[in-house]
Amino acid sequence: YVTDERKKKLAFTDTWYYQGEGMLVPADSTLANREEAEGLTLGAVTGTTHADLALTLTDESDLKLFDTQANLIQAVANGQVDAAFTDQAVVAWSLVQNPNDKVKLVTPYEPYFPGTIAAAFRQDAESDELREELNGALADLKATPQYLEILKKYGLGEDNVAE
């Protein structure tokens, strides 16, 4: 993530894509946003900000924590939780690698913790030159349909497109 704090120490390229947490639900779920998950049994990976988010929507007794992303996905698939919050890009790629027709990511979805993804560089002249070259190539790619195709290859989509 590009943050103001990280910008103090690093130089970033232009934005590659946007992402935040994702909301994973059973394939037959009608849940369309996090507000509809309020008061339900929710899941997240232990120690993540996603667990903190889930606690704003449900009681601690209705929050189930899992040690891995794979176990979280399985809990949604098996109906142990009504919805789960996790890193959107990670779960999207997990579902590309291991398709599971028992779950889906809610889309479109407006993340509570939106993030900007870019490459980080040292703050020096040599890195600035390389970063600018990369920005030029990135701008060229974003101007083509191939940019969205690449995002889709990894389970992302139009919601993740950076300007």
Automatic annotation (TrEMBL):
Keyword Nuclease in record: no
Coiled-coil annotated spans: none
Solute-binding protein family 3/N-terminal domain: residues covered: 2-155
Domain of life: Bacteria
Pfam families: SBP_bac_3
InterPro entries referenced in this protein's UniProt entry, alphabetically: Solute-binding_3/MltF_N (IPR001638)
Keyword annotations of the record: Signal
Keyword Signal attributed: yes
Protein name: Extracellular solute-binding protein (Family 3)
